[in-house]
Each structure stands twice: as structure tokens, then as C-alpha cells.
Amino acid sequence: MNRKTLVLPAVIGLLAPVLAACGGSDSGSDNGGAIVVGTTDRFTASKDAPAPLDPAYAYDVGTWNILRQTVQTLMIQPRGEGEPVPEAAECCGFTDTGNERYACTLRDGLKFANGDPVTAADVKYSIDRARSLKADSGVFALLSTIDTVETQGDREVIFHLKTADATFPYKLSTPVAGIVDPDEYPKNKLRDGFDLQGSGPYTFKADVEDGELNKAEFTRNPDYKGSLKVNNGKIDMVSFKDADAMGEALNKGDIDLMTRAMSPDQIRKLSGDADTGVDLVEMPGLEIRYLGFNTDAPTVKSKAVRQAMAQIVNRSELVSKVYGSQAEPLYSLVPASVTGHSNSFFNKYGDPNVTKARSLLNQANITTPVKLTLHYTTDHYGPATKKEFEVLRDQLNSSGLFEVGIKGTPWDTFRPAEKKGEYDVYGMGWFPDFPDADNFLAPFLDKDNTLGSPYDNNQIRNTLIPESRREADRLSAASSLTDIQDIVASDVPVLPLWQGKQYVAARDDITGTAYALNSSSTLQLWELGRGVSG
């Protein structure tokens, strides 16, 4: 067989958000038995995070990829990128010229998987619930521009916004805006555990042991009405302890497809081996990695320390040693392929330079070497994360200006500790909620940001973010977006490192792999089917 490599268009954000959109409905046929998908994402219900699959709480790529199959949203990001299109809605659009009033009409005959009808009141309940619960994951901030939600009859929903927000249709496509049944999801508390019901293309069954989800069973929902064509009858998603175990299962035929997180070595091997019966599909991605700072912590409270780190880190060397051609250096929070991107960090710091870093520390009267611990998660962003932090440690220590150690922690411990401000410096990744520059800036810099960061810049929050959201033509928002990125490069509340491509590896009788992931790393299981081995 011939190795297949597919590259889809990667320029994001050139089109204005939809002003008015109406959609049809589609369905597919069952093309065989369950397709088994492997992942290294781990799903745990713990004391710190007892409700991992509640749409009002979930805020990471793994849990969202479960919710997107099961909990319907009014809008959805379409196959092949572009503007959001109606999903649970029949039509949606701004009804004013100022992008402050947004109305949707639900499809007729929508049902939850338990048979209850889906009404406009359920949409209002779901949105208001997420906003009022204000879960500590910070996901509710995606709905922060909503002032009130109004219903008219059983099918009309009207969102009155506090300020203009041209990105609002995208936000209605995210799981926090998912429609839940009030009989199943209490108003004043999160729904603990792994119970999950919605009106999406699949119903859901969880195989749980000791508080951890081992396998998720997705069965096509016969009552589903929406815009998606479902090309299979059943998907089983199996969680593996690491990439090696997942890869072995694919080679043995125990699974049909694997996604995140494959190791760089696995990807290189699959790229060069054309006779394995496995196809590797490469797609542009918008995943980024960065260092976050607790800007109130004594070790990094001085801007000069953070600037010195930005002056020393060698992104090209980091990418070359760890990820090779699978990633590219990143000089802003906004990826290079997204409209509004600016190379702000390169513009300010240029190439790595220890002399300039020393000068920054000397001018601020910082005693060297500065002692720091870089924290990273051992099991969330792939097996190369440890090596990545070893390279970062060595770069900083070789300057003589820093004395850095590294410490790895499992995600279910790492994330709560990070949100509580227990780490001075920590490594994080970001898979965008939607493909717009706003979503690479506001979640880190606005009030109620996802990191729980104490960093607060009034110009960004009160002027530049609102300015950028007023522009329906995202090219017209570039000036405000560039100003935000320049401030970030100067203050360094976060330090961007690299942006990555994304890959799917599947047995060669699996169809639809070219659309199994979109640029936001959304897993689109409905695209998969079973064909003929080639």
C-alpha cells in the first residue's frame, strides 16, 4: 500500500462569523461493527474534580471530545473548517448591526436520549446553569459576554449580550453551551461521576473502574436530529496508560485508530514505513505549548525574571531535539496560521542571547542564579513532555543565570495544583475552543481566565479584548490583537514555545480519517466508517 499523507488548509479566521445561518439534517448508514479508537487521555473522577463530564465543568480536550459526540450545541464547527453552522438549531444569526443580539430557532422534534423533548427552555436552563455554577475550571468564562437569555415559545432562544461579540457563534459551538436535560442535571450543583445524557449523534455508556474511565461506548442515537452525517453505528474509545501500549494495540489489531497522544518516535516510524497496514494522516493543527507563570510568586514576580527566560529559551533547538518536523517554534500565543497572529516575542527578544538576559536581571537587581522549578504533567500532553522540559532546564542552566529543576506530576494532581497557584512556573498546552485569535488570548488574559492567573492588565481586559470582539471582519481586529500580543511579550505572564501538527494513525480499512480531527483537535467520530483494506 502507499502511505497517505493529507494536509488540509491551515489559514484560520479569514471569514467573518455567520450573520444568519440555516441548516439541514443528515444521517448515515451502519457500515459494520464497532470501530475501536485508542487514546492516552485519562478520565478520572476525584475529590478535586468529581464531575469530569459535566458540560458546566469540563474544560480539556479529552473530556470535550466525549461531550462533542453526545451533548448537542446550537452551533457546530463545520467539516473542513469555516464559519459555525447550525446543529441543534435550525437557524441562528445576529439580529442587530452591533453584534449584541443573537437569535436561534431550534430544529423541530429534538429529543434527549431518554426521550424527553428538547425545548428553548432547556437551552436557557443549560446556559444559565453553566454561568451561575462558575466551576473552578473557568469554562464559564466562554459565556461571559451574555447578559440575559430569553425564550419565545418552545423553539426560539434570544441571547442579549453585554457587549458586541463577533465570536459568539463560535462560543455556542463549544460544550459549555451544550444542551442538558434539567431532570438529569441539577441547577445548583455539578453532576458527579460519568453519567452523561444529551441529544447528540451518540448515546454514551461508561466502563469505569476505581473512579477511572477505561472505555467509552458511543452508540448511534436513533433520535438524533442535526447537521451531521453519522457514518457508523458504534464507536468504542479505549484509554491506554501510554503511547507505547496504544501503538502495540494498533499493531495487533485490537484497536482500529489512534489519535492523541502519539510519541514523536511513533510518528516518525509510521511516516517511513509503507507496509504496516496502517495509514498515517497528517493534519494542520492549532495546538500550542507554553510556560505559565504565577506572577504573584516571589521567584517570578519580577518581570525581569520572566523576560530573561524569554530571552534565553531557544525554541528552534527545543523543537529540533524533541519534535523535529512535527512542530514549529511559536513566538506568540496566537499560532502563525491564525488571522491576527504577530511574532511579538521574536520582535522584542530576537534570537536567544544570554548577555541581554543578564542585563535585564542586573538592571532589576536580581541576584543570580535564580532558583526555579519547572513543573510539567507526565500523562496529558504525550510522552515527549519530559524530554521537552529537560531541554528547557538545560538551556536555562547553561546560561549561568538560572538554577532550574524539573518535576513531573500526573494530570489529575497537576491541574488542581496549578489552578490553586501552587506552581511558580508550569508547562501547559492549549487546544483552542474555536479557531479564532480571541480564543488564544482571552482565556489566558481576561477575568476568570482558565489558568487562575493573577496577571491583570487593564488595557487588555477593558479596551483591547472588547475592541477586537466588535469586528465581525477578523482582519479588521488585527490592530487590537497585535497590541495584546505586544503587551504579553513585554510582561511575559506566559511564554509561548511551539505549535504542533496533529496526526491520526488508522488501519487501512477505516474511512473518514481525513476529517477525524478538525484544526481545534475536535474528535469527529461520526466521520469514521469501515471500508475495504487496500
TrEMBL record:
Q: Which UniProt keywords apply?
A: Signal, Transport
- The organism's place on the tree of life at top rank: Bacteria
Please tell me where this protein is predominantly located: other
Signal peptide positions are 1-20
- Write out the annotated subcellular location: Cell envelope
Please provide an example of a Pfam family that matches this protein in its UniProt record: SBP_bac_5
Solute-binding protein family domain mapped to chain residues: 83-449
PANTHER family per record: PERIPLASMIC BINDING COMPONENT OF ABC TRANSPORTER, PERIPLASMIC OLIGOPEPTIDE-BINDING PROTEIN-RELATED
Recorded family membership: Belongs to the bacterial solute-binding protein 5 family.
This chain belongs to the protein called ABC transporter substrate-binding protein
Q: Which organism is it from?
A: Streptomyces coeruleorubidus
